[in-house]
Amino acid sequence: MSERITEVEVLKLRRSDLRRCAQLEQLLFPDDDPWSLAAFASELDQGHHYVGAYLGEQLIGYAGLAVNGRPPQVEAEVHTIGVDPEHQGRGVGKALLRALLQRADERRATTFLEVRTDNGAAIAMYRAHGFEIVGLRPRYYQPSGADAHTMRREAVEAS
């Protein structure tokens, strides 16, 4: 079992770290049109909620969420979660997901996401956080053609 990283801080993503996000995308998603620096900048410019996992000053993971609508019709969508391969399996992804879900819960938003059908570790993490599979998107990821599950987590009242 991998050692947990306890000194990781999840903070608002710094614009100065977007280049590192794009580098991690290349490592994590080389076969599925990884996001560019411009794509990450556009997400921030649109006001979406992005957080980073920092080990000291080093960005080791990132995650983003869009929240749309007004109560009682609020929905959130997880746009991305990525963790440096050297730090996977140590709770970083869970910490990032929890930060996104905290924002969704503050808005009482039902939350959706897509995940590759062959990514068992991610699916298990999402299920453990209240998500359920509600659909299938054939050939969702391009250019690889990998299928995706759509998952949903009902709105939860923030504690």
UniProtKB/TrEMBL annotation:
Keywords: Acyltransferase, Cytoplasm, Transferase. PROSITE patterns: GNAT (PS51186). GO terms for molecular function: N-acetyltransferase activity. Residues 8-156 form the N-acetyltransferase domain. InterPro entries: AcTrfase_RimI/Ard1, Acyl_CoA_acyltransferase, GNAT_dom, YpeA/RimI_acetyltransf. The keyword Acyltransferase applies. Coiled coil: none annotated. Gene3D superfamilies: 3.40.630.30. Belongs to the acetyltransferase family. RimI subfamily. This is Ribosomal-protein-alanine N-acetyltransferase.
